[in-house]
Amino acid sequence: KTNHPNIRRIDVESAEEMYAAAIQEYPQTDIGILCAAVADFTLNIISDKKIKREGDAFTLQLKPKREVAKDIVDKLI
């Protein structure tokens, strides 16, 4: 874990939490270090319960996730 007086660490548990924290913290940030995406896609529909097996195949529909780095850079322009 980071233990430096000039570095503030924000722990998150999901890509959505990371996005919200990055967008919220950006305005008062002097330096940002951005790296690879958590995930480029997420499930289109998320089920709260087990999906029962039907047939031999199952298709998952995905949608693109928001792009943290791109959205932060867009706010600079």
TrEMBL record:
SUPFAM superfamilies per UniProt: CoaB-like
Molecular functions per Gene Ontology: catalytic activity
One matching Pfam family: DFP
The DNA/pantothenate metabolism flavoprotein C-terminal domain, residue ranges: 3-73
UniProt-listed InterPro entries: CoaB-like_sf, DNA/pantothenate-metab_flavo_C
Protein name in UniProt: DNA/pantothenate metabolism flavoprotein C-terminal domain-containing protein
One BP annotation, GO: coenzyme A biosynthetic process
